[in-house]
Amino acid sequence: MAGVAVGALALTFSTSVPMASAHGWTNAPISRAKHCQATPSLNCGNIQWEPQSVEGPKGFPNGGPADGKICSAGIGAFAQLDDQRNGSWPTNWLSSGATYTFKWHFTASHSTTDFRYYITKNGWSQNSPLTRGALELTPFLTVPYSGRPPADIAHSGKLPSGKTGRHMILSVWTIADTGNAFYQCSDVNF
Protein backbone atom coordinates (compact mmCIF):
# COMPACT_ATOMS: atom_id res chain seq x y z
CA MET A 1 0.00 0.00 0.00
CA ALA A 2 2.85 2.38 0.83
CA GLY A 3 4.40 1.62 -2.57
CA VAL A 4 1.18 2.59 -4.34
CA ALA A 5 0.99 5.86 -2.39
CA VAL A 6 4.61 6.70 -3.19
CA GLY A 7 4.03 5.82 -6.85
CA ALA A 8 0.90 7.98 -6.99
CA LEU A 9 2.78 10.87 -5.34
CA ALA A 10 5.65 10.53 -7.82
CA LEU A 11 3.22 10.46 -10.75
CA THR A 12 1.43 13.56 -9.46
CA PHE A 13 4.72 15.38 -8.99
CA SER A 14 6.10 14.39 -12.38
CA THR A 15 2.97 15.43 -14.27
CA SER A 16 2.41 18.73 -12.46
CA VAL A 17 5.93 20.15 -12.71
CA PRO A 18 7.27 21.12 -16.14
CA MET A 19 10.32 19.11 -17.11
CA ALA A 20 13.29 21.14 -18.26
CA SER A 21 16.02 19.20 -19.98
CA ALA A 22 17.85 21.86 -21.98
CA HIS A 23 17.51 25.59 -22.10
CA GLY A 24 19.43 28.84 -22.46
CA TRP A 25 19.48 32.63 -22.40
CA THR A 26 21.46 35.49 -23.91
CA ASN A 27 24.16 37.18 -21.83
CA ALA A 28 25.12 39.63 -24.58
CA PRO A 29 22.99 41.49 -25.14
CA ILE A 30 21.50 40.64 -21.73
CA SER A 31 17.92 39.51 -22.18
CA ARG A 32 14.88 40.50 -20.16
CA ALA A 33 14.74 36.95 -18.78
CA LYS A 34 18.33 37.18 -17.49
CA HIS A 35 17.73 40.67 -16.08
CA CYS A 36 14.78 39.23 -14.16
CA GLN A 37 16.94 36.52 -12.62
CA ALA A 38 19.75 38.93 -11.75
CA THR A 39 17.45 41.62 -10.33
CA PRO A 40 14.46 40.12 -8.46
CA SER A 41 13.29 43.68 -7.64
CA LEU A 42 12.08 43.88 -11.26
CA ASN A 43 9.09 41.79 -10.08
CA CYS A 44 9.04 39.50 -13.10
CA GLY A 45 7.26 36.54 -11.55
CA ASN A 46 8.29 32.98 -12.34
CA ILE A 47 10.85 33.89 -15.01
CA GLN A 48 13.27 34.99 -12.28
CA TRP A 49 13.79 31.30 -11.49
CA GLU A 50 13.73 30.08 -15.10
CA PRO A 51 15.42 32.52 -17.50
CA GLN A 52 16.44 29.50 -19.56
CA SER A 53 12.86 28.32 -20.16
CA VAL A 54 11.45 30.76 -22.72
CA GLU A 55 10.65 28.01 -25.22
CA GLY A 56 7.92 28.07 -27.84
CA PRO A 57 7.07 26.80 -31.31
CA LYS A 58 9.83 27.25 -33.89
CA GLY A 59 9.47 28.70 -37.38
CA PHE A 60 9.65 32.42 -36.58
CA PRO A 61 8.53 34.67 -38.23
CA ASN A 62 6.04 32.52 -40.18
CA GLY A 63 5.36 30.42 -37.08
CA GLY A 64 6.34 30.73 -33.45
CA PRO A 65 4.65 32.65 -30.66
CA ALA A 66 1.69 34.91 -31.38
CA ASP A 67 2.15 38.64 -31.82
CA GLY A 68 2.22 40.40 -28.46
CA LYS A 69 3.52 37.21 -26.80
CA ILE A 70 6.85 36.86 -28.58
CA CYS A 71 9.08 37.77 -25.62
CA SER A 72 7.34 35.20 -23.38
CA ALA A 73 7.19 32.61 -26.20
CA GLY A 74 3.46 32.47 -25.42
CA ILE A 75 4.02 31.05 -21.93
CA GLY A 76 1.45 32.63 -19.60
CA ALA A 77 3.68 32.28 -16.52
CA PHE A 78 6.27 34.48 -18.27
CA ALA A 79 3.84 37.16 -19.54
CA GLN A 80 5.77 39.88 -17.68
CA LEU A 81 8.39 39.61 -20.45
CA ASP A 82 5.81 40.95 -22.94
CA ASP A 83 5.07 44.05 -20.83
CA GLN A 84 7.02 47.01 -22.21
CA ARG A 85 6.86 48.71 -18.78
CA ASN A 86 6.84 52.15 -20.39
CA GLY A 87 10.47 51.75 -21.43
CA SER A 88 11.81 50.98 -17.97
CA TRP A 89 13.57 47.69 -18.84
CA PRO A 90 17.36 47.93 -18.40
CA THR A 91 19.10 48.46 -21.73
CA ASN A 92 22.30 47.28 -23.35
CA TRP A 93 24.26 50.09 -25.04
CA LEU A 94 25.34 49.26 -28.60
CA SER A 95 26.83 51.08 -31.58
CA SER A 96 24.89 51.01 -34.84
CA GLY A 97 26.79 49.21 -37.60
CA ALA A 98 29.47 47.89 -35.23
CA THR A 99 30.67 44.31 -34.95
CA TYR A 100 29.19 42.73 -31.83
CA THR A 101 29.76 39.42 -30.04
CA PHE A 102 26.49 37.70 -29.16
CA LYS A 103 26.71 35.32 -26.21
CA TRP A 104 24.42 32.53 -25.05
CA HIS A 105 24.59 30.43 -21.88
CA PHE A 106 22.98 26.99 -21.81
CA THR A 107 21.98 24.97 -18.79
CA ALA A 108 22.13 21.95 -21.11
CA SER A 109 22.17 21.70 -24.87
CA HIS A 110 19.91 20.67 -27.73
CA SER A 111 20.86 19.69 -31.24
CA THR A 112 20.77 23.06 -32.99
CA THR A 113 19.80 24.32 -36.44
CA ASP A 114 20.78 27.98 -36.06
CA PHE A 115 20.72 31.22 -34.11
CA ARG A 116 18.83 34.16 -35.65
CA TYR A 117 18.77 37.79 -34.63
CA TYR A 118 16.00 40.25 -35.47
CA ILE A 119 15.67 43.93 -34.61
CA THR A 120 12.80 46.37 -34.36
CA LYS A 121 12.10 48.82 -37.17
CA ASN A 122 12.90 52.48 -36.80
CA GLY A 123 9.80 54.16 -35.36
CA TRP A 124 8.40 50.99 -33.69
CA SER A 125 6.02 51.47 -30.75
CA GLN A 126 8.07 51.07 -27.58
CA ASN A 127 4.93 51.01 -25.44
CA SER A 128 3.21 48.08 -27.15
CA PRO A 129 4.02 44.38 -26.83
CA LEU A 130 6.39 43.12 -29.53
CA THR A 131 4.75 42.10 -32.81
CA ARG A 132 6.00 40.96 -36.19
CA GLY A 133 4.90 44.33 -37.55
CA ALA A 134 7.39 46.04 -35.22
CA LEU A 135 10.30 43.86 -36.37
CA GLU A 136 12.43 43.72 -39.47
CA LEU A 137 11.45 40.17 -40.40
CA THR A 138 14.68 39.33 -42.19
CA PRO A 139 17.27 38.47 -39.52
CA PHE A 140 20.23 40.83 -39.53
CA LEU A 141 22.37 37.85 -38.49
CA THR A 142 21.90 34.11 -38.95
CA VAL A 143 24.47 31.70 -37.54
CA PRO A 144 24.00 28.13 -38.82
CA TYR A 145 24.99 25.49 -36.28
CA SER A 146 25.13 21.75 -36.47
CA GLY A 147 25.25 19.73 -33.27
CA ARG A 148 24.95 20.59 -29.61
CA PRO A 149 26.51 23.84 -28.43
CA PRO A 150 28.79 23.93 -25.37
CA ALA A 151 27.60 25.55 -22.10
CA ASP A 152 28.67 28.96 -23.41
CA ILE A 153 28.86 30.05 -27.02
CA ALA A 154 29.75 33.34 -28.68
CA HIS A 155 29.51 34.42 -32.28
CA SER A 156 30.21 37.78 -33.86
CA GLY A 157 28.21 39.69 -36.39
CA LYS A 158 27.52 43.17 -37.61
CA LEU A 159 24.74 45.17 -35.98
CA PRO A 160 22.35 46.95 -38.36
CA SER A 161 23.38 50.43 -39.51
CA GLY A 162 21.12 53.44 -39.22
CA LYS A 163 19.72 52.59 -35.77
CA THR A 164 19.40 55.24 -33.09
CA GLY A 165 17.62 55.32 -29.77
CA ARG A 166 15.80 52.45 -28.11
CA HIS A 167 15.24 49.16 -29.94
CA MET A 168 14.73 45.51 -29.15
CA ILE A 169 16.77 42.57 -30.39
CA LEU A 170 14.95 39.25 -30.61
CA SER A 171 17.34 36.30 -30.42
CA VAL A 172 15.99 32.94 -31.55
CA TRP A 173 17.81 29.64 -30.91
CA THR A 174 16.23 27.04 -33.24
CA ILE A 175 16.30 23.44 -32.06
CA ALA A 176 16.91 20.73 -34.69
CA ASP A 177 15.27 17.71 -33.08
CA THR A 178 12.07 19.20 -31.58
CA GLY A 179 9.31 21.51 -32.81
CA ASN A 180 10.54 24.33 -30.58
CA ALA A 181 12.92 27.27 -30.36
CA PHE A 182 14.05 29.51 -27.52
CA TYR A 183 13.22 33.22 -27.59
CA GLN A 184 15.12 36.00 -25.81
CA CYS A 185 14.23 39.71 -25.98
CA SER A 186 16.94 42.25 -25.22
CA ASP A 187 16.30 45.96 -24.82
CA VAL A 188 19.05 48.01 -26.43
CA ASN A 189 20.00 51.65 -26.99
CA PHE A 190 22.05 52.82 -29.96
Automatic annotation (TrEMBL):
Residues 1-19 form the signal peptide. Keywords: Signal. Pfam families: LPMO_10. It comes from the Bacteria. The keyword Signal applies. InterPro entries: Cellulose/chitin-bd_N (IPR004302), GlcNAc_Chitin_IntDeg (IPR051024), Ig_E-set (IPR014756). Residues 23-188 form the Chitin-binding type-4 domain. PANTHER family: CHITIN-BINDING TYPE-4 DOMAIN-CONTAINING PROTEIN, GLCNAC-BINDING PROTEIN A. This is Chitin-binding protein.
